[in-house]
Amino acid sequence: MIESLLVANRGEIARRIIRTAKRLGIRTIAVYSEADADLPFVREADEAVCVGPANPAQSYRNADAILAAAKERKAQAIHPGYGFLSENAAFARTVESSGLVWVGPGADAITAMGDKINARNLMAAAGVPVAPGTAEPVAGVEAAVEAAATIGYPVMVKAAAGGGGMGMGVAADEAALRTEFDKVQAFAERMFGDGSVLLERYFPRVRHVEVQILGLADGRVVALSERECSVQRRNQKLVEEAPSPAVGPELRERMLQAAVTAGEAVGYRNAGTVECLLDPATGEFFFLEMNTRLQVEHPITELIHGIDLVELQLRIASGEDVTVHTDRSGHAIELRINAEDPKRFLPGPGKITTWVEPADARVDSGYAEGNTVTPSYDSLMAKLIVFAADREEALVKARAAVAGFEIAGPKNNLPFFAELLENEEFRSGDYDTGIVSRMRKGVK
C-alpha cells in the first residue's frame, strides 16, 4: 500500500481523499493556494504546502510547484481528484517518470479519451454505440453546414477538447449553426488552446446516464451501477441519483457491458466514468465521453454498493488485487450545494456566517463557518447525499436534509433544491435534461 500521498486538489474532494487515506494509515500532504489557507482540508492533512496565489494557473494547475511539493515532502503518490490537473496526460506522465505513483489511469488512456473526436472514433471501432456525427474535426463553417445536412437537425456543436459541459452549443437550422460554430470555435481556442469542433445529432428530449468503471491492476475492467445526471443547468450537473429511474434490468446490462468494452478498448486502469445519452423514447443510448478520473458524484455509487471508491483507487494504484462488489441495494441522491443564485444560477461568493449541516445525511463539504467562498474557483461548497431503501424514501430524506441545512453569507441553491424535490416531473422519475429550463422558463 502507498505510504504517503499528496492530494493535488482543494475543497471537498481534497477532504474526501484525505479522510480515506488517513483511515488507511497513509500520510497525507495537502497543497493549497494563498486564498485557501484557512479551509478545512489544509488543517486536516498531516502536512500542507502553499503552492501559489489564488489564480489556479499559479497554484492548483502549476505542475512544477506541485511536483516540487511532492519531492520536498517525500510523497510516494499523487491523487489529482477531479478538475485542475486530473485529466492532464502530460502531468500524469511526468508524475510517473519522476518515480511517483499516479492515482488514476495511465497517460495514454487520458490522451485517448481527452479528444472528443478520437474518443468517439475509438468507441465506434470497439462497438460502443455512438450518436450520428462527424468522425473528424470540421474544417470550417461551410463544412459544418454540409455535415449537418447529412446528420440532420438539430445538431450539437462541440469543442473536441472540451469537457464538464463547456464548449457546446445547439443549432436547430443552418443560420443557428453558422452562429454557434463561430462561438464554440472561439471559446475552444480561448479556453482549451484547441479550436477543433465536431458535430453530433442533438436529441431534444434526452437523459444523461453514466456508468462507473474500475480498471483493475490485473487488467480486468469492472462496471458498477449507472448514475442519472439529467438535472443540469448550462449542461452542468446539479443533481445525481443512483440507480437511474429510467434504466431497467435489460438496458442496465447493455449499458454496463458497453462501459466495460469502452474501458477495455483503451486498457483502462483505476476509476473512470463512461457518460452516455439515453433516448427515453426508444431505449437507445449513445457514448458521450469518458471522464478519466474520479467523478464529483461518486458518493452515490459508494452508498448503493457499500464501497469506498477512493480506497479502491489507492489499492489499484498500489498494484493490489482487489475484490469489487457489484451487488447493489437501495437508492441514493446527491445535491450539489453551490454558492450561486438559486434562480438564475449566477455565482454568489462571500463569507460564510452560518453553516449548520443536517442530520441523517452525508455531507462532503469543502467549507466551514467563517470561511470565504472566493470567485477564484468553482462555486461548489458541498455535496448533500442521502441514502434509503428506495427512491420514495430517498426523496423524503432529501427534503428533510435540504430543510435542515443552514447556510448564510454567500448565495446558495438550497431553495432551488427545495423546489425541485416538490416538482411533479422530478418526483415521477420521468424527467430529462430540459427539466431545469422548464422550471426556470420566464424567470428573471
TrEMBL record:
<dbReference type="InterPro" id="IPR011761">
    <property type="entry name" value="ATP-grasp"/>
</dbReference>
<dbReference type="Pfam" id="PF02786">
    <property type="entry name" value="CPSase_L_D2"/>
</dbReference>
<dbReference type="GO" id="GO:0004075">
    <property type="term" value="F:biotin carboxylase activity"/>
</dbReference>
<feature type="domain" description="Biotin carboxylation">
    <location>
        <begin position="1"/>
        <end position="441"/>
    </location>
</feature>
<keyword id="KW-0092">Biotin</keyword>
<dbReference type="InterPro" id="IPR005481">
    <property type="entry name" value="BC-like_N"/>
</dbReference>
<dbReference type="Pfam" id="PF02785">
    <property type="entry name" value="Biotin_carb_C"/>
</dbReference>
<dbReference type="InterPro" id="IPR005479">
    <property type="entry name" value="CPAse_ATP-bd"/>
</dbReference>
<dbReference type="InterPro" id="IPR011054">
    <property type="entry name" value="Rudment_hybrid_motif"/>
</dbReference>
<feature type="domain" description="ATP-grasp">
    <location>
        <begin position="120"/>
        <end position="318"/>
    </location>
</feature>
<keyword id="KW-0067">ATP-binding</keyword>
<dbReference type="InterPro" id="IPR050856">
    <property type="entry name" value="Biotin_carboxylase_complex"/>
</dbReference>
<dbReference type="Pfam" id="PF00289">
    <property type="entry name" value="Biotin_carb_N"/>
</dbReference>
<dbReference type="GO" id="GO:0005524">
    <property type="term" value="F:ATP binding"/>
</dbReference>
<keyword id="KW-0436">Ligase</keyword>
<dbReference type="GO" id="GO:0046872">
    <property type="term" value="F:metal ion binding"/>
</dbReference>
<dbReference type="InterPro" id="IPR016185">
    <property type="entry name" value="PreATP-grasp_dom_sf"/>
</dbReference>
<dbReference type="InterPro" id="IPR005482">
    <property type="entry name" value="Biotin_COase_C"/>
</dbReference>
<protein>
    <recommendedName>
        <fullName>biotin carboxylase</fullName>
        <ecNumber>6.3.4.14</ecNumber>
    </recommendedName>
</protein>
<dbReference type="InterPro" id="IPR011764">
    <property type="entry name" value="Biotin_carboxylation_dom"/>
</dbReference>
<keyword id="KW-0547">Nucleotide-binding</keyword>
